[in-house]
Write a structure and sequence with these properties.
CATH class: Alpha Beta
CATH architecture: Alpha-Beta Barrel
Low-confidence stretches: none
Number of domains: 1
Mean pLDDT: 93
CATH topology: TIM Barrel
Helix content: 40-55%
Largest sheet: 7 strands, parallel
Strand order of the largest sheet: 10-9-6-3-2-1-11
Radius of gyration: 22 Å
């Protein structure tokens, strides 16, 4: 096949522009050899006819999308035509079943015919009974990764799609941080606002009991950590810091002063006094990896030839805590390839925002330049001017270093396909970020290939990409295939 080149395309784009038109363009101009399709879309709606036989062990159900209602069955329309052209087809399983309102994520509420705000991602029927429970006993906006109903739903979708249709595999995509991340750095696109840790449902408590974790002390520790985290958030709000989201504290604390020994020392003090915090956080991440293992095993039970790839989000790569918890050495045992998100254009904005939140949470009594220098030292990156990162983006050295790091972490035993962004937006409209340019796409692809990558997933989706930038990718891929053997 040569250099693996995947590109996600929505079913809406296929219907709008024509299946054959898109496939021919991607193959001839962009050199794509694997089309990645969200047959179950971002909101949870499906664009095909699910086989109910596979859903006997879950109460969760998706709804048909508007395309399906109009008679467009994505599997039947896309898969045969892609295979006729020698292109593989992967299902893009996006596990984004959170129910945050659009006003929280994007600033613009969506309303139904009665004027009530709707939750655009809350499309799974019976979703409310599997939501995480936080330290205050409240249901949250995200499903619990241990809830048997939610696990069985994932396995059912995986088996249904891979067994019922002749597709080549699955790209599984989940972007979630753990309870420690939520307590320290939580918030929205509009800034940091510490959130209450979850999940403490009966399933998670049973899992904790098996590990010997003291549940009461874990809750007490996370409450102490939340009180601590809200101190710097309150201080940031008082200063008019644009990185602090609006809202009211969850705890009774109203003290916005810095701890006498500084924020970071106080953080270490709390997690040392309450080791249950880190134990619970590790358990949450282990639970997420168990979900990935189950998806891999389900796919291989259908056929050893079905390939399973995992998307790894920017939140892992730019956050030292999350980076430590996403262990690629383990993940290599239950995947066939890994797609780390490595957008070097909007990556500058995203790294800048991550450092801002770290600074506000743990180093607000120090300068943000000191916090940025610490991050650069941890990651071995060289960005002298933190403040220009959004408009400068991340350089080719970032792509080279991180590609090599991923390959080394998996012992070069599974392929690494970096997700190179093309015209990827950088958060809210109006945010300053480096625009995508053909030369930057071209050089980025040559850089990852030289670093040892065996492919790429051009990201984020066909509908966002300009032809000039996609065709620059095609030019680079032709050159890569002439230089290297795969």
């Amino acid at each position: 096949m040569g250099f693996f080149v995947g590109l996600p395309v929505s079913t809406d784009q296929f219907e709008k522009k024509g299946v054959e038109n898109i496939l021919d363009y991607l193959k001839d101009k962009v050199k794509v050899n694997a089309v990645i399709v969200a047959f179950k879309n971002f909101g949870g709606d499906f664009c095909y006819a699910p086989n109910e036989d596979y859903y006997a062990f879950t109460n969760l159900r998706s709804h048909p999308c508007n395309l399906k209602k109009r008679g467009f069955d994505a599997f039947h329309e896309i898969v045969p035509k892609a295979h006729e052209r020698g292109m593989d087809v992967y299902t893009h399983f996006q596990s984004y079943d959170f129910i945050n309102p659009a006003s929280m994520e994007f600033g613009n509420p969506q309303r139904d015919q009665h004027g009530f705000e709707v939750l655009p991602n809350a499309k799974l029927r019976n979703l409310s009974h599997i939501l995480e429970i936080d330290i205050f006993g409240r249901k949250t906006t995200r499903p619990c990764l241990v809830n048997p109903d939610y696990l069985e739903y994932h396995y059912a979708v995986t088996e249904d799609q891979l067994r019922s249709y002749p597709i080549n595999g699955i790209l599984f995509n989940i972007e979630r941080g753990g309870p420690l991340n939520a307590t320290l750095f939580g918030g929205t696109r509009f800034g940091r606002k510490p959130q209450a840790a979850s999940c403490f449902c009966v399933h998670c408590q049973n899992a904790a009991h098996k590990r010997g974790i003291n549940i009461s002390r874990a809750k007490e520790g996370f409450l102490k950590l939340l009180e601590f985290s809200e101190r710097s958030w309150l201080a940031a709000k008082e200063k008019g810091d644009s990185g602090a989201a609006q809202g009211f504290p969850l705890t009774d604390n109203r003290d916005s002063s810095a701890p006498p020994d500084g924020y970071f020392i106080e953080f270490i003090r709390i997690i040392s006094r309450y080791p249950e915090i880190m134990a619970w956080n590790q358990m949450w991440h282990d639970n997420m990896q168990d979900l990935l293992k189950g998806i891999y095993g389900t796919a291989k039970a259908v056929s050893p030839d079905k390939k399973v790839g995992y998307h790894v989000w920017h939140g892992r790569d730019f956050n030292p805590i999350e980076r430590a918890l996403y262990n690629m050495q383990d993940m290599r045992l239950y995947c066939d390839w890994i797609k780390p998100k490595m957008d070097h254009t909007c990556g500058g904005f995203r790294y800048h925002r991550t450092v801002q939140r770290f600074h506000q949470a743990l180093f607000y009594d120090r300068s943000i330049d000191q916090a940025a220098a610490m991050h650069n030292a941890i990651f071995n990156w060289d960005y002298d001017d933190f403040h220009t990162l959004p408009k400068d983006g991340l350089g080719l050295d970032y792509l080279e270093k991180d590609t090599k790091a991923y390959i080394a972490n998996v012992y070069d035993e599974v392929p690494i396909y970096p997700g190179i962004g093309i015209d990827m937006p950088a958060g809210n409209p109006g945010n300053i970020h480096r625009p995508c340019e053909p030369e930057y796409v071209y050089k980025g692809l040559l850089t990852i290939a030289k670093a040892g990558a065996k492919g790429t997933v051009l990201s984020r989706g066909f509908g966002e990409m300009q032809p000039k930038n996609m065709e620059a990718a095609g030019k680079a891929i032709d050159e890569i295939n002439s230089l290297y053997k795969f």
